[in-house]
Design goal:
This protein has helices spanning about 10-25, 25-30, 35-40, 75-90, 110-120, 175-185, 200-215, 220-230, 235-250, 265-270, 365-385, and strands at about 60-65, 95-100, 125-130, 135, 155-160, 165-175, 255, 255-260, 270-275, 275-280, 290, 300, 305-310, 315, 335, 360. The chain is an alpha/beta fold. The strands form 5 sheets. Strands 2-1-3-6-5-8-7 form a 7-stranded mixed beta sheet, sandwiched between helices. A 3-stranded mixed beta sheet has the order 4-13-11. The chain has a two-stranded antiparallel ribbon with strand order 9-10. The structure holds 2-acetamido-2-deoxy-beta-D-glucopyranose (2 copies). One 2-acetamido-2-deoxy-beta-D-glucopyranose binds next to loops.
């Protein structure tokens, strides 16, 4: 699965440099250039197990959605229905609960409270998938076990538009390590730097994991901690997460923790076996099981997508007439991937036949090309920030 990252020759650096300059000065061109076959025609790898899916039984896996006090299921009706119907179809436990009935009220921030709730539920199962309420399942044929691995107690994923670990979802196994980590993390609330733009749990997970996984890198930890403490806006927050990510390097696996990646450092993207020949290394990292819906205007692929994020009832829009393009749309709109409502009575074990809106189903190539273009745009912007 992993190739060693190596840069073979000096000319390769020159090539990178030229590429960098090209990106800096012709950013939009490179994004639109359909001839960039190294960029847009290369599939994102999908990290899935095809080995033994039954190493962990479905009935011992709980899918948990924690709502803040007073939040109603209707606010996320389609997303939650899809998750419940999916859980029923495969025999997973489905738990929809509120965060005020688990003894987690001592935590002030609802974002931390939900992790506390997860830590209370986890001991009853072998594993828990935590999902934000606005995540829906689109590809009901996928199984959670495909994304799990006996080697890892915690599986996080990168968000698609930033170098950030997303806390909207993770998978944790009921081991001492998994339980301790989530419990400790929920209590990390008290370490949020006061008065800074800290990003609550999404910001905190970076510092927390860095302290856990690199306890001896004191200097780097301190530098990142200062960046977090001094953060006043999104750009600062970005600098802070980048600081942490440089500690993590290009790895995805850290002992019992795995971070499903899609962002690669440029040096790991190209490999240059000949003086002027670079090939794209696409076997490096897998992609997560959930991504933001708006990135592709709601178009998804049966081959690559599993869950979509951002399905809030009051942001639902009608699918427009006319041809649809696989490109980012407003972050506050989405189209329902489904035709008609879920009939919860018919969501039973073995029913994986759902009615999708066929107009929103795209090919893997189209969806990935759209995602890659967006990723490239972000990378170009990042370079501008660093200038
Ligand atoms: C898969 O794992 C289950 C449970 O550990 C076991 O019973 C089954 O024989 C395994 N199947 C294969 C094909 O290895
Ligand atoms: C399976 O469940 C879906 C979602 O509720 C429903 O639309 C469909 O009719 C069901 N299929 C069968 C064969 O019952």
């Amino acid at each position: 699965m992993f190739f060693p990252i190596s840069i073979h020759s000096i000319p390769c650096f020159t090539l990178f440099f030229i590429l960098f300059l090209y990106i800096l000065f012709n950013g939009d061109d490179i994004i639109e250039d359909q001839d960039s076959e190294y960029l847009y025609r290369v599939p994102y790898p999908i990290m899935r197990n095809s080995n033994n899916e039954s190493w962990i039984k479905s009935e011992n896996i709980a899918i948990v959605i924690v709502l803040a006090e007073g939040v109603k299921r209707e606010y996320y009706k389609i997303a939650i229905n899809s998750v419940e119907c999916y859980a029923k179809a495969h025999g997973y436990q489905f738990i929809l609960t509120h965060d005020n009935v688990w003894g987690c009220d001592y935590l002030k921030d609802k974002f931390f409270r939900r992790h506390c709730v997860i830590s209370k539920i986890l001991p009853k199962y072998e594993a828990v998938l935590h999902l934000d309420a606005d995540i829906g399942v689109v590809n009901q044929k996928r199984k959670l076990q495909e994304y799990m691995n006996p080697q890892f107690d915690l599986i996080f994923h990168d968000r698609h538009f930033s170098p950030e670990i997303g806390m909207a979802s993770y998978i944790v196994r009921n081991t001492q390590y998994g339980l301790d980590l989530i419990t400790e993390f929920s209590n990390y609330e008290k370490k949020l730097p006061e008065g800074s733009f800290h990003g609550t749990d999404n910001g905190a997970i970076h510092m927390f994991l860095a302290e856990k996984l690199f306890p001896h890198n004191l200097i780097e930890l301190e530098l990142c901690r200062r960046a977090w403490r001094n953060s006043q806006n999104v750009a600062d927050q970005f600098a802070y997460t980048s600081c942490i990510r440089s500690l993590f390097g290009a790895n995805t696996d850290f002992g019992k923790v795995r971070i499903l990646r899609k962002v690669r450092s440029l040096s790991s993207v190209f490999r240059c076996p000949g003086v002027c020949m670079c090939v794209y290394l696409y076997h490096l990292y897998g992609t997560g099981y959930v991504r933001d819906d708006w990135l592709t205007s709601g178009i998804w692929s049966l081959d690559r997508d599993f869950m979509l994020h951002g399905l809030k009832t009051d942001h639902l829009k009608k699918v427009p007439y006319g041809p649809l393009r696989v490109s980012p749309m407003s972050q506050t709109s989405w189209y329902s991937p489904f035709e008609g409502d879920f009939d919860m009575e018919r969501c039973v074990l073995g029913n994986t036949t759902w009615n999708h809106n066929p107009r929103l189903i795209g090919t893997r190539e189209d969806v990935e090309c759209g995602l890659r273009k967006h990723e490239m745009k972000i990378a170009v912007k990042k370079n501008h920030i660093y200038q």
